[in-house]
Inverse folding.
């Protein structure tokens, strides 16, 4: 019960870190028409505001994953929440000065911290709950952020109506400050949480422990340093991940393109196509985000109970079909459909659990030490897709309409090609999910066949399966056995005065195993005891790493293409900002007085 309480406290602390960032991320969508009317912002300028938020997220998640591995989650979270608070404050100043340029700069700073914080939050939850109901715990962590996003979309416009146009920005700044304070609380109790729950130490913590014990025992310090070095992940290691990983990354790019831009543009799309008021449109579109608040826990519960790889993929396919229905419905003539409600419901349900699936899939694809880096890569490429499509969407809309002066039919017509583009990309996502499913299933079947071959060879190899293991695998096994002896079961380990010995650490034996193993026979190829009591670890193929030189070379190519895509997103944003961002005097011939 004590350990359960400690884990619950850690979960609550992790959830509180992102309340401010999630709320602030969704205040602009419902205010699009108001900003255009009162500040004269164009579609492109609004898209640049949103893109500035996701622009830095094209690289900060990957760096955040590496920072979490190198500096530890506590220090990384402090840096992230500080950037979020500063960026939100600058955004508020820009709104007060009616300067889109300053607001964009504020969103730029804000975006530096958002994705690293998300990586840290997910890494903390995985760390404390990877063997204790990860699906439901991760669902709870994500649902808090999604509920904050829903509240933001639901209250942003009403706040501006009742308390002045700056009220949403003030509330967002206060919530960002609250998250920063809660982060300080987590940092102050993090050591106690770690020691009380007996979780695995991070690389940064192992280095710190090695330094602190150097005066007590040189051998212990050296052993801890060796384990920390093994847990440290370098950026070049991404290329070692297999084809299934890169298929997963490609799907993330499409997900970013069809999810985030639509949520920010939906209030304006619904307002124009169905002739609703700004309040009605913001209210209706806010329900796009409500699905996650109840579907995340349900999805997490299902995953924890079934724990079957095909279940994850099937749920992902259902999600893609539902979001496609949303875009198809909105693409139909409004005088035929009459209401956006079916599209809103379909999207809320379809996208309501898909982000959780993207996170839960990660432990099934890569070894545990790669989880922070993989979470970073997934968010990085997802935000790259979001930035590119968000910027292009604003340019596309401005080619068909010209702010508030455009005829109503022109405003409606401008959204038609945009909705068609959403639908086409959704189809690409659907086929990509099916392709990922096929690749993953093929890999698992080959793993099962290899395991069967090892069992067949066992009588001829002295009871030791895996007779044909390569030297690289043997080295991996040697490292694993050596590392497993570093922890309390080694005779040279002596707890400090007043400390209780930690329970035997078995995580090193699971290092190469996916966290959410399947009950399928496909995944029966786990480590098998040998005569001498050791465990033969999974080879690179079974653990999700590239298994051949050719696959590693493909990994380098995909990594280079990812870098090109990220660079393209930056070039598109910078070029568009230089051409389209205007000063207040350029946007309007005379100043506009906004309410205080």
């Amino acid at each position: 019960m004590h350990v359960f309480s400690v884990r619950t406290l850690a979960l609550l602390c992790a959830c509180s870190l992102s309340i401010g960032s999630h709320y602030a991320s969704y205040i602009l969508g419902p205010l699009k028409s108001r900003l255009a009317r009162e500040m004269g912002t164009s579609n492109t300028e609004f898209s640049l505001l949103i893109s500035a938020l996701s622009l830095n997220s094209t690289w900060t998640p990957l760096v955040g994953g590496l920072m979490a591995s190198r500096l530890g989650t506590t220090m990384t979270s402090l840096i992230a929440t500080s950037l979020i608070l500063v960026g939100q404050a600058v955004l508020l100043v820009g709104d007060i000065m009616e300067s889109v340029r300053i607001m964009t700069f504020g969103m730029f700073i804000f975006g530096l911290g958002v994705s690293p914080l998300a990586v840290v939050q997910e890494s903390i939850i995985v760390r404390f709950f990877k063997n204790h109901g990860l699906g439901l715990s991760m669902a709870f962590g994500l649902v808090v952020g999604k509920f904050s996003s829903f509240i933001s979309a639901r209250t942003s416009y009403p706040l501006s109506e009742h308390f002045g146009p700056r009220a949403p920005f003030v509330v967002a700044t206060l919530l960002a400050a609250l998250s920063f304070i809660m982060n300080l609380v987590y940092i102050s109790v993090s050591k106690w949480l770690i020691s009380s729950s007996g979780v695995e130490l991070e690389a940064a913590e192992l280095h710190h422990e090695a330094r602190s014990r150097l005066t007590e025992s040189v051998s212990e310090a050296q052993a801890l340093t060796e384990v920390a070095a093994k847990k440290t992940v370098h950026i070049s290691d991404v290329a070692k991940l297999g084809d299934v990983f890169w298929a997963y990354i490609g799907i993330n790019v499409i997900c970013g393109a069809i999810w985030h831009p639509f949520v920010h543009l939906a209030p304006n799309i619904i307002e124009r196509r169905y002739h609703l008021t700004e309040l009605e449109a913001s209210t209706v579109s806010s329900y796009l985000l409500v699905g996650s608040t109840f579907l995340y826990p349900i999805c997490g519960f299902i995953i924890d109970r079934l724990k079957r790889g095909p279940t994850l993929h099937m749920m992902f396919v259902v999600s893609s079909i539902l979001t496609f229905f949303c875009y198809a419905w909105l693409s139909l003539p409004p005088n035929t459909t009459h209401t956006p409600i079916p599209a809103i419901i379909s999207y809320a349900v379809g996208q309501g659990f898909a982000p959780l699936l993207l996170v839960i899939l990660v432990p099934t694809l890569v070894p545990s030490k790669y989880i922070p880096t993989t979470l970073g890569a997934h968010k990085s490429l997802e935000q790259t897709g979001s930035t590119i499509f968000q910027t292009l969407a604003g340019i596309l809309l401005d080619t068909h309409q010209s702010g508030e002066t455009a005829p109503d039919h022109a405003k409606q017509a401008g959204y038609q090609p945009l909705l068609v583009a959403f639908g086409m990309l959704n189809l690409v996502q659907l086929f990509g999910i099916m392709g990922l499913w096929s690749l993953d299933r093929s890999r698992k079947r080959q793993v099962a066949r290899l395991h069967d071959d090892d069992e067949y060879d066992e009588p001829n190899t002295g009871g030791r399966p895996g007779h044909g293991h390569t030297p690289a695998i043997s080295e991996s096994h040697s490292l694993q056995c050596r590392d497993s002896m570093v922890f309390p079961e080694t005779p040279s380990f002596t707890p400090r005065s007043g400390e209780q010995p930690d329970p035997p650490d078995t995580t090193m034996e699971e290092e190469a195993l996916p966290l959410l193993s399947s009950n399928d026979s496909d995944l029966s190829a786990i480590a098998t005891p040998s005569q001498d009591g050791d465990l033969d670890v999974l080879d690179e193929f079974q653990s999700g790493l590239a298994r051949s030189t050719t696959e590693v070379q493909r990994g380098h190519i995909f990594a280079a293409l990812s870098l090109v895509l990220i660079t393209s997103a930056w070039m598109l944003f910078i070029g568009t900002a230089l051409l389209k961002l205007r000063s207040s005097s350029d946007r309007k011939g005379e100043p506009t007085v906004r309410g205080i």
Remarks:
- The longest helix spans residues 408-457.
- Confidence is low (pLDDT under 50) at residues 461-499, 501-542, 590-596.
- The chain has one domain: 2-199+233-444+556-580.
- The radius of gyration is 25 Å.
